[in-house]
Amino acid sequence: MKTTPLHESVSKSYTEALARRAAGGSGCCGPASCAEPAPAGSTPAAASSFGCGNPLAFAEVRAGDVVLDLGSGAGHDLIVAARMTGPAGRVIGVDMTDAMIDAARANLALAGVTNAEVRKGMIENLPVADGTVDFVISNCVINLAPDKDAVFRELARVLKPGGRFSISDIVAEDLPEVLRSSAQAHAACIGGAISEADYLQGMRAAGLTDLQVADRFAYDADTLVALAESDFGGLELPPAELRALAAAAAGKVVSARFTGRRAEPAASEACCGGTCC
Asked: What pLDDT sits at residue 208?
């Protein structure tokens, strides 16, 4: 799958945002990492995280699991997952941005993690074999993808039957068109967000089941202004107009955590004439 102009715009935005973060900037896709300092014992990649939530919260990653992180960024969640799955497990990160891949590999080395790797690729076309993953995580990335249905199909493809996922992302309802059409708003995780109903329907169509929205956090106007003025360059609007847009979108932009699993084959599909195929 070739990159689109939107992929290239997002990759450029995150490369520049990472550089600004390294120089002391701030910005993110969610209130926790925007408003709170990194917790004690956080990973060396935490300062470069642009996530909207914690996809590993209550996710029950098991020792020995193969874990896949869609859009692994600077590697914070890779490090946490590697510790949870232990030396018997393995963690794979996929990201399309060279600067993020370099940062993640450096952070993995700094943390002394040896059971994790980072692969270059797009989440619509994952460089991961069919049915090889026990658990998929992702932190505020799928909303950036132009073809979210392709992402959901890829998620189902790489999971083992019965394999699980915990995904934090941004969903939105009835956004003003200026936000939908803004590249900066897209990079800041707002412009490309779809509704919660469409998100769940895309997962169902891909063969994912036991779907739940485990957590929700609706953004108020102040948080939306902070996102618009984040590391992603801002919307270049007069302050009064930006505030009016934020007020119109308040409560319509939500950070949510989705959980579920890949459906297991029915007995008739798994076995032929009493003999398993």
From this structure: 97
